[in-house]
Design a protein that fits this description.
heterotrimer, A: alpha/beta, Amidase signature (AS) enzymes, eight-stranded mixed sheet, three-stranded mixed sheet, 15 helices, B: alpha+beta, flat
């Protein structure tokens, strides 16, 4: 079978049994990136020389008998993770040619694991967006339908994985930025529990919501990627101290008796009928495997949306203050004075969605408005967390849509940012509560994939991955790929 | 709870973001559409709840008081827009 | 103020004390002063994209010690907030500080006012003390038209100690600032160096007519880097405000800088509505929890603090409250006094060391010389063991007080240890009774008329005989012995009339 269609476990076996070398594997994927990415635009930076060097080093380690899950296997980083020696742009003109002088903890871990980075993937600027249209490096196309967005903000990672330009990719999820593009591109994505993956070196959007994770074809692949990324980091005060279980070892847990909660409030008028139907199909597959469907109440999605669109911009307005043209990044030409330097560097360096959220966030925190906006939003956040806690008293896993629709057309929401925010209505509550969530492909609406969301209680990634994996043992949606990206089709 | 033009300019100043007068009406429309969501937050059910700053039920870890960093000025300043004699440069600050 | 007796000043201080940790509050960069620009500013201190803060345990410990020392409530749970504003020496565009839940709440500091017998004590309440990170420095004079930014200081741990507006004069404000300075140094949590900015004092000053309850509009006076300048800056500011109001003006709420060269304050900026710091809880940091058991251990570990030490000096050594307060006013002074006393006791093992004598010399001759030369007591050319050697020669009657002063001056000038100076200058006191008797007899023989006058009742002439005898002795006769012998020889005045 062609290398690009193999799972991470198959690639591991192939490398360990010397069917191919890490260099050959890396060359194969680099060739695919070269062939397809001019159209897709899923990469901001490619690093073929560094990748081949890393592959050669991996081959030495493999030859020495080292066994490690990701050793010699290519991947791509969302361009939000700091990588020494390779520019980190965060999709922004502000950091257009900025090279981080240090590695993100996640990157250090992947380097140590011998993973081979092919490049950095496109994203909505500073992870703010649901379509990947807010990138200073141009929009990304959805490989299933070039007229559609890939979703965002990890749109480049989702598109690259969907087109099998990389076996897997990292992503980050603040309000749905892994799950929604995974759904739109028909791949599997996991956003772990807040604190599971270190945020050190992951450029902050909204610090209390941001969480790194994985996009890959299957849950089994996600388990391997997450295993390498997860774990306590003393450099991140918000990093969880809990031990990390063996995600791959737990994949074969049976679904018998698993209570799957289905929120009544999520299957209402706002949800596209075809999306709803595909999710119902998937729920039947779970039931056939012995899972028990439990209808549950999970109210306050709109409240969560309101809270999120104040909390995230408020944190962002502060997090993005460091981009001031003084110590790194973009500085406007010939500033008249300090105020001019600040105002023009930031106005010229940031795109409109980023500026919009900074302004909203600044307003929400400003004197006289804090209590009405930020303070109330934090209370709403508590309500959302309590709603989930109550729901998990009745079920083990919550299942529902990732987004109200399948991928929308490029440009569809360009004139109306607030409507685009509604795309995140099912994903946002999960971030507010800090819970682990996944998106798995469950079929199509026309050309465009439909994703189903699985949500767990804190630190139940293993159960979520196993649930998804069991479903993927019975279905093949995760194995499908867009025909235009099949070998020999171009 | 909507934003007017003066408030927008004030917030833009606090944010150090220059905005064109011509952009103001469109920006106000966008921002107020987003702020309209916030009406939800006036729900009296929320009154009794404690604000939630963080999803993690953990306390702050503490670092031992050890010097772990070396002088890496050259590397750290490589991406700086303007540096001289080891100092970051900005236009003259008039004050103090 | 004397000319404006119907006015009363109201003063509160905000003191920023840099904590004496080895590394910064949120990074592992060194905190030492005077490094090359930005050589001690790591990625975290520079606020590079993606970096995160991790709290230094020692900063928490030191802040808690301060709270315990001033009898405050040390919060078992405190939180960090972000104070947002743009300034080139503030790398992240926000300062990590504590607003809602500071680590230290309440507390008080007792100050001593007045001198000697007239000294009295006053309690100044502390509102709160919180942990925060220091900013970097802006250097305006290095480049023409440009400001240089040095971020070495960025991230140095600070406690900001906020007092209630309990002080009513510049003198009280200085006494409070000095006392806080002493406490942080006793605790070893701050080096107290005001020139290097380790200990910075901002004064909130307002005036109001005496008897008025409500406060006047206040100004904040910054940039005072010595206690002397603090006093002058406040004095100037009080006068300025009173004159302004008496001339029909009103005080504007503003920040003012003290200019030591011109001895005046001048406006730095008006506090506008634009000062909107948008505080909110820092999402990168979790609540700081101190276990009660840990706090108890820290409480037990507190060193003897100035007030306790002063009480001990009074009860153990019989010192006056004023002397005790002066000797404990700094850790170094107290240490110097105690070293002197210990050395004296070593030299004279069979008698109780004279603490009052030590106290008099430390608060007298030593203090006067330090004041004159501007030296710190730690840099005194007369060390505590040397001073003790001098005091031994007073106790054993080798030196009179007057001669001791002469020896002390020679010691200060670097002429060596006391015994060598006594030998070299022949300053040894005459304590041989027969020698003094011979001197006295000679003087009486030379002045028969004066003796007669004395004996007829002119008792003031006693001083004349003392002076003559001392002159004949080259000033070295033991004064007490001389008195006794003279009295014996002359008999009571007027008795033989």
């Amino acid at each position: 079978m062609s290398l690009y269609k193999q799972s991470l476990a198959e690639l591991r076996f192939g490398l360990d049994t010397r069917q191919f070398s890490a260099r050959e594997l890396t060359e194969a994927f680099l060739a695919r990136v070269g062939t397809h990415d001019a159209v897709l635009n899923s990469f901001i930076s490619r690093v073929p020389e560094a990748a081949l060097l890393a592959a050669d080093q991996a081959d030495v380690r493999i030859a020495a008998g080292e066994k490690a899950p990701l050793l010699g296997i290519p991947y791509a980083h969302k361009d939000i993770f700091c990588t020494q020696g390779v520019r980190t742009t965060c999709g922004s003109k502000m950091l257009g040619d900025w090279v981080a002088p240090y590695d993100a903890t996640v990157h250090q871990r992947l380097n140590a694991a011998g993973a081979v980075m092919l490049g950095k993937t496109n994203m909505d600027e500073f992870a703010m967006g649901s379509s990947n249209e807010n990138s200073a490096f141009g929009a990304v196309k959805n490989p299933w339908d070039h007229a559609a967005v890939p979703g965002g903000s990890s749109g480049g990672s989702a598109a690259a994985v969907a087109a099998r330009l990389v076996p897997w990719a990292t992503g980050t999820d603040t309000g749905g930025s892994i799950r929604q593009p995974a759904a739109y591109c028909g791949v599997t994505g996991i956003k772990p529990t807040y604190g599971r993956v270190s945020r050190y070196g992951m450029i902050a959007y909204a610090s209390s919501l941001d969480q790194g994770g994985v996009l890959a074809p299957s849950a089994a692949d996600c388990a391997i990627g997450l295993q390498a990324m997860a774990g306590h980091d003393p450099r991140d005060s918000t990093s969880a101290a809990q031990p990390v279980p063996d995600y791959s070892a737990d994949l074969n847990q049976s679904l018998a008796g698993l209570r799957i909660g289905v929120p009544r409030q999520w299957f209402t008028a706002g949800l596209d009928a075809t999306v709803a139907a595909r999710i119902e199909d998937a729920l039947r597959v779970f039931e056939q495997q012995g899972a028990i469907r439990v209808d549950i109440d999970l109210p306050d999605a709109e409240l969560a949306l309101a809270a999120y669109y104040l909390i995230a911009p408020a944190e962002a307005s502060s997090n993005l203050s460091r981009f001031d043209g003084v110590r790194f990044g973009y500085r406007c030409a010939e500033p008249r004075d300090l105020m001019d330097l600040y105002e023009r560097s930031r106005s010229e360096g940031f795109g409109s969605e980023v500026k919009r959220r900074i302004l909203i966030g600044t307003y929400a925190l400003s004197a006289g408005y804090y209590d009405a906006f930020y303070g109330r939003a934090q209370r709403a956040r508590r309500q959302v967390a309590e709603n989930f806690a109550a729901a998990f008293a009745q079920c083990d896993v919550i299942a529902g849509p990732v987004a109200p629709t399948v991928a929308f057309d490029l440009g569809a929401h360009a004139s109306d940012p607030a409507t685009m925010y509604l795309e995140d209505i099912y994903t946002i509550p999960v971030n507010l509560a800090g819970l682990p969530g996944m998106s798995i492909p469950v079929g199509f609406s026309g050309l465009r994939p439909v994703g189903m969301q699985l949500i767990g209680a804190p630190f139940t990634e293993a159960r979520l991955l196993a649930t998804a994996h069991q479903y993927q043992q019975q279905t093949d949606w995760h194995l499908r790929m867009p025909a235009a990206y099949e070998e020999g089709s171009v | 709870m909507s934003l007017n033009a003066n408030q927008l300019k004030h917030v833009a100043h606090l944010s150090r973001i220059a905005i064109d007068e011509a952009q103001v009406p469109a920006m106000l429309q966008d921002l107020n559409a987003i702020l309209a969501f916030a009406e939800q937050l006036q729900d009296p059910r929320l009154d009794k709840l404690m604000p939630m700053a963080h999803p993690l039920d953990q306390t702050q870890p503490l670092r031992p008081d050890r010097v772990t960093e070396r002088d890496e000025r050259v590397v750290l300043q490589a991406g700086a827009p303007a540096v001289a004699q080891g100092l970051f440069l900005v236009p003259q600050v008039i004050e103090s | 103020m004397s000319t404006h007796s119907r006015w009363e000043a109201v003063i509160g201080l905000e003191i920023h004390a840099q904590l004496a940790t080895k590394s910064k509050i949120f990074s592992g960069a060194a905190t030492t002063f005077g490094a090359e620009p930005n050589a001690q500013a790591c990625a975290v201190d520079l606020g590079l994209p993606g970096v995160l803060p991790v709290l230094n345990a020692e900063a928490v410990h030191m802040a808690a010690l301060f709270g315990l020392a001033i009898d405050a409530e040390v919060a078992l749970e405190s939180t960090f907030d972000r104070k947002n504003y743009f300034y080139p020496d503030l790398p992240k565009g926000y300062q990590i500080s504590q607003l809602a839940q500071p680590i230290v709440n309440g507390g008080q500091v007792v100050i001593t006012l007045g001198e000697g017998e007239a000294a009295e004590q006053k309690t100044v309440r502390v509102t709160r003390a919180h942990l925060e990170e220091d900013a970097g420095k802006s250097l305006h004079e290095v480049f023409a038209g440009m400001t240089g930014i040095d971020l070495n200081r960025a991230g140095t741990p600070l406690i900001e100690i906020v007092s209630e507006p309990d002080m009513r004069s510049a003198v009280e404000a200085v006494a409070y600032a000095r006392k806080v300075h002493a406490i942080v140094q006793y605790l070893g949590i701050c080096d107290g160096n005001m020139q290097e900015g380790s200990f910075r004092v901002d004064a909130n000053v307002s005036v109001r007519p005496k008897g008025q309850i409500s406060l006047g509009t206040r100004t904040e006076v910054k940039n005072v880097n010595s206690f002397r300048f603090l006093e002058r800056a406040i004095l100037f500011e009080i006068e300025r405000q009173i004159e302004l109001i008496e001339d029909g003006g009103t005080v504007q709420q503003q920040t003012r800088l003290y200019d030591p060269d011109k001895d005046e304050t001048r406006m730095m900026r008006t506090k506008e509505a634009a000062d909107d710091y948008r505080y909110f809880p820092d999402p990168d940091l979790l609540p700081v929890v101190i276990e009660p058991a840990t706090l108890a251990i820290w409480r037990d570990s507190l060193p003897e603090l100035p007030d306790a030490k002063a009480r001990r000096y009074q009860s153990e050594y019989g010192l006056t409250p004023y002397d005790a307060a002066v000797l404990t006013s700094s850790k170094e002074t107290a240490a110097y006094f105690e070293q002197t006393l210990a050395a004296l006791a070593d030299r004279l093992p069979d008698q109780v060391a004279d603490a009052k004598l030590c106290a008099n010399w430390v608060t007298g001759a030593i203090a006067a010389q330090l004041n004159k030369t501007g030296l710190a007591i730690g840099d005194s050319p007369v060390t505590a063991p040397s001073l003790a050697l001098l005091l031994v020669r007073i106790v054993d009657n080798t030196l009179s007080n007057k001669l001791a002063r002469e020896v002390f001056e020679a010691m200060w000038a670097g002429e060596g240890e006391p015994d060598a100076i006594i030998d070299a200058r022949g300053l040894k006191q005459i304590t041989d009774s027969s020698a003094i008797e011979a001197l006295v007899d000679a003087i009486l023989a030379e002045n028969p008329d004066k003796v007669a006058e004395y004996r007829s009742g002119k008792d003031k002439l006693f001083g004349f005989f003392v002076g003559q005898a001392m002159k004949a002795a080259g000033g070295k006769a033991n004064p007490q012995q001389l008195n006794e012998i003279l009295q014996a020889r002359l008999g009571p005045p007027g008795e033989q009339a």
